[in-house]
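Quick one, T. Sequence first:
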Amino acid sequence: MKVAVLIEDHYQVLEVWYPYLRLREEGIETIFVGTGTKDSYQSKEGYPAKEELSIKEADVNTFDGVVVPGGYAPDVLRRYEEINMFVKNMYQKKKLVAAICHAGWVLVSAGILKGKKATCFSAIKDDVINAGAEFIDKEVVVDGNLITSRNPYDLPAFCTQIIKFLKERT
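Structure tokens:
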């Protein structure tokens, strides 16, 4: 199994590294996929994450899922059509799409929330609702192949559901 973890500057450090490493502990290959604008991206605190693959080279058919972390990074990620199309294609192919915190912005821009149940950081709740989702204030919401969580405190439940989804598919 292989999962893309999207990265861009100003990412939330726990929401990138916790899933990246936790999935690896389960034997799931994780790949940092960036926008292709640089070799390394900095967290909000300056911690680097090295791009392992550019979104321009990322093939949906070679991945089983995508994790979209939060922080300010999703507001930058959503500006790249390749990112939005990658997430949308993963969703349409019924592969894992997991988003935490402000990552809901990428789901909005990818156009995949209409008629779905989802959660997110409270500050972007209106964006998620206006995109057509039913907002549910829970630590993790699973609706088909879409898994969403609110903030770093929800990471254990978020990763548990990601792993469960992926293992049920094998």
